[in-house]
Amino acid sequence: MSEQTSTPGEAPVDAESTGTNGASAEAASAPVATEAPVAAEAPVAAEAPMEAATPAAEGGGASTADLVGLIEGKSDEEIVELIKALGEDSFFGGLFDEMAKRFLPDKAAGKTAVIQYDINMPDGTRSYQVDIAAGACTINRDAPKEASVTLILSAPDFLRLISGKLNGMSAFMSGKLKLKGDMMLAQTMQGWFDAS
Predict the structure, then answer these.
(1) In this structure, are residues 131 and 137 in contact, taking their beta carbons and an 8 Å threshold?
(2) What's the CA gap between 12 and 32, in Å, rounded?
(3) Residues 7, 146, 142, CA angle at the centre, nearest 5°?
(4) Which of 15, 137, 170, 186 has the most CB atoms at less than 10 Å from its CB?
(5) Domains within the chain, CATH numbers bracketed
(6) What is the pTM of this model?
């Protein structure tokens, strides 16, 4: 598969962009994914049980503030342990299910895209695809389709990115966020989701 990137006035070139060491300006504007909502509820106190029910499972819907409360002030190791304690599949699945609920079809009218997130955990990569087509948003696990754009980052940085605690451009420039594919899509897709 060949990814292409280009800048205004230049012909497209095949590229995989990884931030530092030759990052292009448009790639650095990777989505600050505050558009991705959360499915895990922040513990009320440090002693709160980690297996607390998620608002999404209760028919509610977690806010970005809930995710911020869950991860703020925690190290990468603490965030990974929290994800493991909550159950990786249900935790990430809940996040992406909530993202699909927050899709704004009018903002993506006429658009078709497969946005892939490769989330790195210590024991391997979890891949999720956000499939936008015909005014609908569906979530697929394990990347069954060819992605229009792929965002690659660690699990803690993914959570910081979608909660607004990590700026997409800074993450890209520092190498915490890597992009493959349509970088312009990475810039525009953030408006397709309710960020509240």
Answers:
(1) yes
(2) 25
(3) 125
(4) 186
(5) 20-192 (3.30.1050.10)
(6) 0.71
